[in-house]
């Protein structure tokens, strides 16, 4: 198994604040890697730094052997990275259809892939010609994820996709991520819901104060309540 994404010694400053302090990790190709940690640990900053939205102050980021830390965000996306920010970032004044057309950079929408997406998110078919701004929070999250997967991507960076969503939508997301992985995508996913994380994660990284403080198998962490409490201040039993 090869490493698709590599971060080596990444430091990120935002204004006068030093957020990431020498972040090192790899994301194996074809796996779902969970990035966990308490609020403010640096998880979102890590994803934004990978995408070039906040430039790394120092260190190296490589995608499939290509250095990307000095590239512009659109160029990074064109290398095959899909990004789902916590803010969802849909175009509110455009319809669901128009949002997906814009996201399909390589050409017209693929009907078979759309049908596959509708299988997970049937609301998007119902609201196909509705303005995205009129959707509920859960429906906007569906659209944000659909935008990222409307074409095959090498790597998906997803920031807290289940936050504030109803259990039925969360289950649809879990099924969607599992199917995306079966189709060959690699996922780096920030998630606060540990019960969700242990269902879909292969590997796990835990951040604290801008550093990686734990790395290993997700199943091992899910079975170690003492490590959960030490690293995250929680236990799986309280997040069922």
From TrEMBL:
InterPro entries: AAA+_ATPase, ABC_transporter-like_ATP-bd, ABC_transporter-like_CS, BCAA_Transport_ATP-bd_LivF, P-loop_NTPase
Gene3D superfamilies per UniProt: P-loop containing nucleotide triphosphate hydrolases
UniProt entry keywords in alphabetical sequence: Amino-acid transport, ATP-binding, Nucleotide-binding, Transport
GO biological process: L-amino acid transport
Domain of life: Bacteria
PANTHER family for the chain: ABC TRANSPORTER ATP-BINDING PROTEIN, HIGH-AFFINITY BRANCHED-CHAIN AMINO ACID TRANSPORT ATP-BINDING PROTEIN LIVF
Annotated function: Involved in beta-(1-->2)glucan export. Transmembrane domains (TMD) form a pore in the inner membrane and the ATP-binding domain (NBD) is responsible for energy generation.
Protein name: ABC transporter ATP-binding protein
Taxonomic placement: Bacteria, Pseudomonadati, Pseudomonadota, Alphaproteobacteria, Hyphomicrobiales
């Amino acid at each position: 198994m090869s490493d698709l994404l590599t971060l080596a010694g990444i430091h990120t400053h935002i204004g006068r604040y030093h957020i990431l302090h020498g972040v090192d990790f790899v994301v194996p190709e074809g796996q779902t890697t969970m990035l966990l940690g308490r609020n403010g640990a640096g998880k979102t900053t890590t994803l934004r730094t990978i995408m070039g939205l906040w430039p790394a102050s120092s260190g190296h980021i490589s995608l499939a052997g290509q250095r990307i830390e000095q590239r512009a965000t659109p160029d990074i996306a064109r290398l095959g990275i899909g990004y789902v920010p916590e803010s969802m970032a849909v175009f509110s004044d455009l319809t669901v259809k128009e949002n997906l057309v814009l996201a399909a950079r390589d050409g017209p929408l693929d009907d078979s892939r759309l049908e596959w997406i509708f299988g997970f998110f049937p609301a998007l078919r119902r609201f196909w010609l509705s303005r995205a701004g009129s959707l509920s929070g859960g429906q906007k999250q569906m659209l944000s994820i659909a935008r990222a997967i409307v074409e095959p991507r090498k790597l998906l960076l997803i920031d807290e996709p289940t936050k504030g969503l109803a259990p039925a939508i969360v289950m649809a997301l879990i099924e969607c991520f599992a199917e995306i992985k079966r189709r060959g995508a690699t996922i780096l996913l920030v998630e606060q819901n540990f019960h969700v994380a242990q269902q879909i994660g292969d590997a796990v990284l835990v951040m604290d104060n801008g550093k990686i403080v734990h790395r290993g198998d997700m199943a091992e962490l899910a079975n170690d309540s003492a490590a959960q409490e030490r690293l995250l201040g929680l236990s799986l039993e309280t997040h069922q």
